[in-house]
């Protein structure tokens, strides 16, 4: 529009307005445009509520007819109560006893492992480092100061870890006994105190075989005099038996 020429409203013919609007019918002033918008809003507002309500009612009826009433999968929680169904209807849920589900069936009570307990096995003889130890054998043990002491095996034990140990009875030397470093003379030793706790066989060194009751004579506190000669046995040796057979 050329400068200096004011437009004219196509409806009211005015040339003075705070805002002009270009429409299909021509330029309209702000007042005429507001009047047209008010008339259009009044005409559509009267029809819109009624049509929207009809559309909503129709949609609800179609949904209710197409979809059945939804039933809960956990019917046990109602316990004979009624739940709403279609408009004007109620569905009665029968009380069903609550059973064990699949998750509960496969769930087992945890079992505790038994406590580890030592179970030593007693025996009359054991095999240890290439030799047999039996009840009644004479063994020697050395203390931290280097002293040698002799004892007789009273019992043999093997624990769950295959560690072998022996309960011993200490033998006490007499005035006729030779020094412990020079050797062991069985007829010069007498029976001493008994130990309740076993000692490991690795601390013991085999000396000779002897009967388990050799030092436990009832008529005398001293053992009988050793009459036979030889090494390794108190009463006899293989060499003496060989000589007797000849």
From TrEMBL:
It comes from the Eukaryota. One of its GO terms (cellular component) is nucleus. Residues 40-57 have a biased composition (Low complexity). Keywords: Metal-binding, Nucleus, Transcription, Transcription regulation, Zinc, Zinc-finger. It is found in: Nucleus. GO terms for molecular function: sequence-specific DNA binding; zinc ion binding. Residues 58-68 have a biased composition (Basic and acidic residues). Residues 40-89 are annotated as: Disordered. Residues 8-32 form the GATA-type domain. One of its GO terms (biological process) is chromatin organization. The keyword Plastid does not apply. Its main location: nucleus. PANTHER family: GATA ZINC FINGER DOMAIN-CONTAINING (PTHR13340), GATA ZINC FINGER DOMAIN-CONTAINING PROTEIN 1 (PTHR13340:SF2). This is GATA zinc finger domain-containing protein 1. It comes from Nasonia vitripennis.
